[in-house]
Amino acid sequence: MKVRHILGISGGKDSAALAIYLKDHYPQIPFEFYNSDTKCELLETETLINRLASYLGGITRLVAVEKSPEPTPFDHFYKVYGGYLPSPQARWCTQKMKLEKMEEFVGEAPAISYVGIRGDEDREGYISTKPNIQSIFPFRRNIWSLDVINKLFQNKNIPLLEELCYRICPVEYRNDFLRVVRTPTSKSFYFSKKTNTLLDVSVRTFNRIVFEFLKTTDLPVGRLEDFPLVDNEDVIVKDDVFKILRDSDVGVPAYYDSIPFEVDGKIGYYNRSRSGCYFCFFQQKLEWIWLYEQHPDLFKKAMAYEKDGYTWNQGESLADLIKPERVREIKLDAIRKQEARKASGCRLADNVDDEAFCANCFI
Ligand code: SF4
After folding, report:
1. Is residue 282 in contact with ligand 1, taking CB distance under 6 Å?
2. Quick one: average pLDDT of 273-286?
3. How far is the CA of 93 from the centre of ligand 1 (A)?
4. Ligand 1 center to residue 309 CA distance, Å?
5. How many whole angstroms from 360 Cα to the centroid of ligand 1?
6. pLDDT given at position 361
7. Closest CA to 143 of 220, 224, 225, 234
8. In terms of DSSP bridges, do strands 111-114 and 60-62 run parallel, antiparallel, or are they unpaired?
9. Distance from the alpha carbon of residue 12 to the mean position of ligand 1, in angstroms
């Protein structure tokens, strides 16, 4: 069965930059770009997706429960769950509106899913529970997912890895590679340490060994004749992402624009740090205030979902959050943090910490 190459466009900067980067660098790979459309995104996100679709030559929009009479998939499932709002602990929204539809889109075909986790992020990406979908992280130094690394470095594979070293390693790296692959994993030499030690010697050689190893498994990458990403040594960090977006003319999503606000003569800035549903419970308090002041209609809609004691934020309703004293407190707190960041040399654009947002939603 033909291996598919899929890339989920979230409407955020990282997946957009990844799509542009891969299309430009690997025109020989038949990428399929898709977006899980929740119908609850900001207009700025929609604008970015439309611009990107023109650049890429199309993005498939996947909509869960398309035939539902409810106005959005969220409203449909909100009803199904009896008004129980999703939360970090009960995240039915991602499962129902994004993951299930994506897995249906892929079906049973082997598929490689390219994920835009950057080289300067310290988190693992979504790994599908379906064995026919394999995630690859082209922006990181280590492009392989945790499940691949865990498989690779099983101690029983040491003889096979030795054999691959003799076959693949250029002479100048061979002894270093052999020394590392022969060292069994243990509490003091765990999987990530082993991986990084080999990557320090040669990224390309490590990737070539993993690729050959994958051919002994059922994983989708192992079914390919050739996988050009094994030769890619680029590590893409946040500044590179902005550059890719600007250079392509797709541009940076408008919700990243820093907007000034004033409290007691002091100036602070706010913006939204990621795409995703306008009511996403992962957003920080300052982002809720941003929504309240920049998109009051959407804030009102988010408030309307708070019923029967269910709230988007634990311990604080949106009605309480927008009381003038509370808004003032949140803004002053943000100004203090931003001034501290500025004093420590951080750039002003990082008004809110984007890593705290809905990481796994952006598959
Ligand atoms: S963006 Fe937030 S609210 Fe929307 S599906 Fe993801 S986790 Fe849920």
Report:
1. yes
2. 94
3. 6
4. 20
5. 9
6. 59
7. 234
8. unpaired
9. 13
pLDDT at 124: 75
The verdict on the CB of residue 204 being under 6 Å from ligand 1 is no
User: Does the beta carbon of 94 sit less than 6 angstroms from any atom of ligand 1?
Assistant: yes
- Kindly report the backbone phi and psi dihedral angles of residue 112, in degrees, each rounded to the nearest multiple of 5, phi listed first: -105, 125
Residue 122, pLDDT above cutoff 90: no
Cβ-based neighbours of 255, under 8 Å, separated by 6 or more: 42, 44, 45, 271, 272, 275
Domains, the chain, with CATH or none: 4-144+232-247 (3.40.50.620), 149-228 (no CATH), 255-350 (no CATH)
Confidence of residue 344 (pLDDT cuts 50, 70, 90): confident
Q: How far apart are CA 42 and CA 362, in angstroms?
A: 15
* Residue from 357, 358, 360, 362 to probe ligand 1 pocket by mutation (most atoms less than 8 Å from CB): 358
Quote the CA–CA distance of 67 and 71 in Å, as a whole number. Answer: 10
Per-residue tokens: 46: 């929609």
Taking every pair of Cα atoms in the chain, the longest distance, rounded to a whole number of angstroms, is 69
Cβ atoms within 10 Å of 195's Cβ, excluding its own = 21
pLDDT over threshold 80, residue 217: yes
Residue appearing with tokens 């897995």: 103
End-to-end CA distance of the chain: 23
Q: By the 8 A CB rule, do 118 and 140 touch?
A: yes
Q: Give residue 345's pLDDT.
A: 77
Query: In a mutational test of the pocket of ligand 1, which residue from 37, 361, 362, 363 has the highest number of ligand atoms less than 8 Å from its CB?
Result: 361
**pTM for the whole thing?**
0.93
Beta strand segments in 118-199, E: 133-136
3-state secondary structure of 216: coil
Q: What is the DSSP string of 295-347?
A: -HHHHHHHHHT--TT--SBTTB-HHHHTSHHHHHHHHHHHHHHHHHHHHTT--
Other Cβ atoms closer than 10 A to 140: 20
Spell out the residues 6+ positions from residue 254 whose beta carbon is closer than 8 angstroms to its own.
44, 47, 48
286-296 residue pLDDT tens: 999 999 999 99
DSSP H or E run through 144: none
Q: Report the residue count for the chain.
A: 363
pLDDT tens for residues 6-33?
999 999 999 999 999 999 999 999 999 9
